[in-house]
């Protein structure tokens, strides 16, 4: 089932076009990565897709229902989400538990099922043993992991993640990618993840969307193994033509 469908999206910063004629999709049951060089507007594309930023033109459709016919639940993890200061008052367990409130309602009492979700979420990122610690006492990588655990606790249908493994070591990153692959393939979730290292995640992801500058200097989406090669070939041929003039 198609959860995200973006058609011919163009975005401007002031009067400068940053993204032009972007089209891509994400379906339930797949783990999709989004890559591109530094400054390739990957975060901008995510924010525009979510409606945080307004496109100049184009059509963005996000499904209202999941593949079970229920209301679609979206979890968005932006960059630098783990910048809690040392005085942050919540414990790890309280913070992750708060991810269950939107599902149950702010005034409903948490039950055994909710507690199981929280434990499973903390276990999944290796943070159950830290459940009673104050968030401000954690390292940057540990804060990132509990932010991910809170997201898991909310049990979303669609994960939109902007470089979620920042601050994690290689083992933790690999475990996370495997977890997202499992969520997509075994539970029908959809995952769209910005990453700076496609090689690191290639064994777990189903598809890679690559943002690449075209010959006019604007970023557009290309399939990593087809359109990208075609565009690079066209640019090479153009350079050779100019060299022969």
From TrEMBL:
<keyword id="KW-0067">ATP-binding</keyword>
<keyword id="KW-0864">Zinc transport</keyword>
<comment type="function">
    <text>Part of the ATP-driven transport system AdcABC for zinc. Required for transformability.</text>
</comment>
<dbReference type="InterPro" id="IPR003593">
    <property type="entry name" value="AAA+_ATPase"/>
</dbReference>
<dbReference type="InterPro" id="IPR017871">
    <property type="entry name" value="ABC_transporter-like_CS"/>
</dbReference>
<dbReference type="GO" id="GO:0005524">
    <property type="term" value="F:ATP binding"/>
</dbReference>
<keyword id="KW-0406">Ion transport</keyword>
<feature type="domain" description="ABC transporter">
    <location>
        <begin position="4"/>
        <end position="238"/>
    </location>
</feature>
<dbReference type="InterPro" id="IPR027417">
    <property type="entry name" value="P-loop_NTPase"/>
</dbReference>
<dbReference type="InterPro" id="IPR050153">
    <property type="entry name" value="Metal_Ion_Import_ABC"/>
</dbReference>
<keyword id="KW-0813">Transport</keyword>
<keyword id="KW-0547">Nucleotide-binding</keyword>
<dbReference type="Pfam" id="PF00005">
    <property type="entry name" value="ABC_tran"/>
</dbReference>
<comment type="similarity">
    <text>Belongs to the ABC transporter superfamily.</text>
</comment>
<keyword id="KW-0862">Zinc</keyword>
<dbReference type="InterPro" id="IPR003439">
    <property type="entry name" value="ABC_transporter-like_ATP-bd"/>
</dbReference>
<keyword id="KW-0178">Competence</keyword>
<protein>
    <recommendedName>
        <fullName>Zinc transport system ATP-binding protein AdcC</fullName>
    </recommendedName>
</protein>
<dbReference type="GO" id="GO:0030420">
    <property type="term" value="P:establishment of competence for transformation"/>
</dbReference>
<dbReference type="GO" id="GO:0016887">
    <property type="term" value="F:ATP hydrolysis activity"/>
</dbReference>
<dbReference type="GO" id="GO:0006829">
    <property type="term" value="P:zinc ion transport"/>
</dbReference>
